[in-house]
């Protein structure tokens, strides 16, 4: 597990860009946090890190939004889903083959996936724009990747 703090939207987005350097086709990333903690901000950073130029918005009403980048990004909002059964109905297996699946409100559907996913927990970190972010995975593959994550001077590790 890697834990860090960000003090602004800019730093949260920068962290997303760094996480994007770790992803591979077929990866699943679950974003977990309360309303307003920065799940979509982090998603924007991941998209930017994948070279996506299109404006990234929360897919709350569309449920799933596709973006073309170095690796296709499938941005899913699970808030309105009733659980893993709804994911099956979306046919997510097709998306997992060639792209990265990024799921906001991932705690609502985590039972659907094998343990080979990255869970990103975002919590309030004090002042209004501060966040505590934990990168967690039971997967040895993800643990090795997280060990290579260079946070530089922008973030507190």
Folded structure, characterized:
By secondary structure, the chain is α/β, with parallel strands linked by helices. The protein has one domain (2-147): P-loop containing nucleotide triphosphate hydrolases (Rossmann fold), CATH 3.40.50.300. Helices cover 29% and strands 24% of the residues. It contains 5 helices and 7 strands. It has helices at residues 9-20, 39-49, 84-90, 92-98, 140-147; strands at residues 2-6, 28-33, 64-67, 73-77, 100-104, 118-124, 131-136. A 7-stranded mixed β-sheet has the order 1-7-6-2-5-4-3, with helices on both faces. α1 packs across α2. It is globular, with a radius of gyration of 14 Å. The relative contact order is 0.25. The mean pLDDT is 86.
Brief summary of the model shown:
This protein is α/β, with parallel strands linked by helices. The chain has 5 helices and 7 strands.
Main beta sheet, described? Answer: 7 strands, mixed
Give, in spatial order, the strands making up the sheet with the most strands.
Answer: 1-7-6-2-5-4-3
The end-to-end distance, rounded to whole angstroms, is 11 Å
Identify the overall geometry: globular
Name of the CATH class: Alpha Beta
Question: Helix fraction?
Answer: 25-40%
Output the CATH homologous superfamily: P-loop containing nucleotide triphosphate hydrolases
The parts where pLDDT drops under 50 for at least 5 residues are none
Number of helices: 5
Per CATH, which architecture? 3-Layer(aba) Sandwich
Average pLDDT: 86
Q: Report the C-alpha radius of gyration, rounded.
A: 14 Å
Work out the count of structural domains.
1
Briefly note the CATH topology name: Rossmann fold
Order of helices and strands: EHEHEEHHEEEH
Output the structural class: alpha/beta
């Amino acid at each position: 597990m890697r834990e860090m703090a960000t003090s602004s939207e800019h730093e949260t987005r920068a962290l997303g860009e760094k996480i994007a350097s770790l992803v591979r086709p077929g990866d699943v990333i679950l974003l977990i946090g309360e309303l307003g903690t920065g799940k979509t901000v982090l998603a924007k950073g991941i998209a930017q890190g994948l070279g996506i130029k299109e404006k990234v918005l929360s897919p709350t009403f569309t449920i799933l939004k596709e973006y073309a980048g170095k690796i296709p990004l499938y941005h899913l909002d699970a808030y309105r889903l009733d659980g893993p059964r709804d994911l099956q109905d979306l046919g997510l297996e097709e998306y997992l083959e060639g792209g990265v699946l990024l799921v906001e409100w991932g705690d609502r559907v985590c039972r659907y996936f094998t343990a080979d996913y990255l869970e990103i927990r975002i919590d309030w970190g004090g002042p209004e724009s501060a966040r505590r972010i934990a990168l967690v995975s039971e997967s040895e593959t993800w643990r090795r990747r997280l060990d290579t994550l260079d946070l530089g001077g922008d973030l507190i590790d």
